[in-house]
Specification:
Blueprint: E1 5-10, E2 13-18, H1 29-43, E3 50-55, E4 60-62, H2 67-76, H3 78-98, E5 103-107, E6 110-112, H4 114-121, E7 124-128, E8 132-134, H5 148-156, H6 158-167, E9 170-171, H7 173-178, E10 184-186, H8 191-203, H9 207-220, H10 225-240, H11 243-254
Parallel strand pairs: 2-3, 3-5, 4-6, 5-7, 6-8, 7-10
Antiparallel strand pairs: 1-2, 8-9
């Protein structure tokens, strides 16, 4: 049986490849569940420090949810559709958003619906110049269900997000960059090298500090500034007693490269 998500490691970086190219890497339930299981494996592996997610084949990162499977859930009733499709997708994107190790999307082609929502949820994203984004759920009479109505307005602003959500029109990687959905747009043959270069720039630092930064930003976005500052203080306090902070300070004073242990 073909792996629905291919998992490989390159040094301290895990590469997850959505692997249904004949279906434009559509996110059926089994693919979603496999991705979640692999994230559990990666979180428990101290040798893996950063994650890159991309799509198999030349056409798509992910075209979104598997509409044929979703249709069956809708026919089974509202409770089934919410449980199997909506809640599953929201749990997956929330897991990516709050994952304690940095996650980078390498968007190699079509990123529609759920594929766009993965891009919104992850911490960083690099897009190929061949990428194409869309929020097309309105075309089948539904709102986005994997968090797109909430994360895109936070990234792009309310009016720009509503334009895309209400029209279903596709948009270019350059517009995705301008809206803050992706960090870089690169030539197609530089996509994975660029994502891995970004990952390597991250893994040279303390993995504990990276995790604390992700937690502070993710939790703080939906709070007041005062509450966010309290979260920031909590995350600093969690670092203050670690070996990594001592190593970072000693290395800076000695003007040498630090050697972090993640403790």
């Amino acid at each position: 049986m073909t792996d629905l998500v291919i998992y490989e490691t390159r040094g301290a970086v895990a590469l997850l490849t959505l692997n249904r190219p004949e279906k434009l890497n559509a996110l059926n339930y089994a693919t979603n569940d496999r991705l979640m299981a692999l994230l559990d494996t990666i979180e428990a592996d101290p040798a893996v420090r950063t994650v890159v997610i991309t799509g198999a084949g030349e056409r798509a990162f992910s075209a979104g949810g598997d509409i044929h499977e979703f249709t069956g859930s809708v026919k089974a009733g509202v409770e089934t559709a919410v449980r199997d499709f909506c809640r599953r997708g929201q749990t997956m994107t929330a897991r990516l958003e709050s994952f304690p190790k940095p996650v980078i999307a390498a968007v190699n082609g079509i990123a529609f619906g759920g594929g766009c929502e993965i891009t919104e949820a992850v911490h960083l994203a690099v897009a190929s110049e061949r990428a194409l984004f869309a929020k097309p759920e309105i075309n089948i009479g539904i709102p986005p269900t994997f968090g797109g109505t909430q994360r895109l307005p936070r990234l792009a602003g309310r009016k720009r997000a509503l334009e895309l959500l209400l029209t279903g029109d596709s948009f270019s990687p350059q517009r995705a960059y301008e809206m803050g959905l992706v960090n870089w747009v690169v030539p197609h043959d530089r996509l994975l090298p660029s994502a891995f270069e970004l990952a390597e720039r991250i893994v040279r630092h303390s993995p504990l500090a990276a995790s604390r930064i992700i937690a502070a930003v993710t939790r703080g976005l939906n709070t007041t500034i005062a509450e966010g500052l309290e979260i920031e203080r909590e995350q600093f306090a969690r670092m203050a007693a670690t070996c990594d902070i001592q190593e970072g300070l000693e290395a800076w004073i000695a003007r040498r490269a630090p050697h972090y242990t993640g403790r």
